[in-house]
Input
Amino acid sequence: MTAPPDVKAELIRGFWRGDGHRGFHGAYFGLVTTSAHLAYQTQELLVSLGIAASVTSFSPVGKRRTYHVLVTAEFSEKMARLLGVQVRDNRNRWASHYALDHEFAYAPIRNIQTLDVSDLQVFNLEVEEDQTYTAAGVAAHNCVRKCPFDAIRIIGLPEALKEDLVHQYGKNAFRLFRLPVPKKGEVIGLLGPNGIGKTTCVGLLSGELAPNLGHYRRKKAYWEEVLDYFAGTELHDYLEKIANTRLTTAIKPQYVDKLSKVYSGRVRDLLTKIDRRGRLPELSASLELDSFLDRDISQLSGGELQRMAIAATMLKDADIYFFDEPSSYLDIYQRLHVAKVIQSLSKEKYVVVVEHDLAVLDFLADTVFLMYGEEGAYGIIAQPRPVRTAINVYLGGYLKEENIRFRDREIRFDTRPPRGDWKGETLVTFDELTKRFEDFKLTVRPGRLRKGEVVGVVGPNATGKTTFVKMLAGLEAPTTGGVKGKWQVSYKPQYLESAYEGTVGELLRNTVGKKAESGYFDSEILQPLRLKGMTERDVSTLSGGELQRVAIALCLGRDADIYLIDEPSAYLDSNQRMEAARTIRRVMEKEARTGLIVDHDVYFLDMVADSLMVFSGDPGRHGLGEGPFPMREGMNRFLKMVGITFRRDADTNRPRINKLDSRLDREQKSAGEYYYAIEEAA
Output
């Protein structure tokens, strides 16, 4: 296709001499071939020479299908000149159905048909130098010389498999392919986007669901058929125990904030009722439950509900334990404590964990099963990988063994801290602030917020982070001290409720106004947060993760000077967290706005923040807020208080928690560098 016109003309003449013919008293020219590929390539060659041609096909009985390239009407003369022959056409109609310009050939629409492409293999072609184009739906590569090594790499995009179907909910409903394999002595992790079957996996492995192998009309379990299907695999023995009810299960649910609507009464009474082995005192110490054991469940915070749910799960005498997002609402100190307690279970029991905080998953799990697919349509479980490899593959977005790319671009982290001398116009200054409640006192040291700055807020739960944010938002008045400056605030609270009666689109338009229909809002907020397909859904039907993304969009869509966003990563999967961090960061930079982000996910804060405010104190009694500090100083202050250090992964630069008292841990603590590499920070 890139050859000079005279070379193309000679190709057409050669084809004409071999397979050409004329019809209707020489009024049209035809070329015949049994190759559809050659016919459509010839059509494209003729168009590039300014000659429009049609392609028709015939299938004579007992013979191969033939393809006819026909040139007629006003293009006959040009074809005749190219071939060096005479043309005669005395018909009245001389105009062609086709029209040409310098870019396109235009053809009339004869009919419109639909084609089922559900089983069509789709490829992503990465091409160097030579051209790849599509002819009649067939991808063709035109190498003008022999392709150099790796000139073309064909990489499969995710699609539903034709085999290994384990469970299907209905005719056009969600399908799950393959299952993870629990193992004693290991913590098995499940990592993947929301809506692709992690909860279904938990249901199948716990025995709440029986695999139907695609027979979705069945109402009862056919375990004999299932066991025959898995015969000779690692899963067979495990599923056999499930089928014969020889395994008991305990499941920690995902949405712990709903527990207070299901249970009532004191925490101690609920846990004592479950505890049949006398383990409550031990777990109360390791999970730090003593401070709220005698409180009513309806009075608990999100972090307290989470620890209560984990304790209730672990107190049950079971063979296999499932923990669905055990780190939500917990600060990093509590996350590591919970991880250690869960790890202790795996020595004698089966343990499966669904977790989106990659730093915690890296610390907690031994083996990880990656999951990919299409949200709400199908999910595929990839082969097991060691936890470090699995997380690196997930960040890279490419499964080498399966040759599947499930993300457009890889995610990488910076090893160097942001510049400490970053400057910007001051937007808000605050004196030393105090806020007194009946049982709690918060003190915040003097500080300032600058235009265009994104400030991360870190610290243990119940030390006043949300209270400080509410004081800036004007929802709480400080007991002493004041905040100076003129600003408008957009606030996303920590706990969300879907009380709005209407669709997501109506909520966006009513809250954001005309901006909700602008190209900027669409491209910078709706598309990255993947809300485009949700605008017609009722808000009341949204899941926790979907509601979180809508809340972030509403917050970023309002016109404000300061955006106060409390725990934006809660209920988001790992990929959605990265996209949310990028979206917040991009909006702050483009609009020169100030962001204050309260979160416990270290990866999230690493991607979004320029500086840090650090909170400390005695949780539930008194809190102290300081900063903002440059990222390096803030991370060092915070992690020194927690007592952990991070190293950087050699392949992705992602932060990884050092083993306590390891050589690296001791070296970094000695140098005072808890997060950034010693040589980089220096």
Q: What stands out?
A: The longest strand covers residues 378-386. The domain at 5-106 is CATH 3.10.28.10 (Endonuclease I-creI). The two ends are 56 Å apart (CA to CA). The longest helix spans residues 574-591.
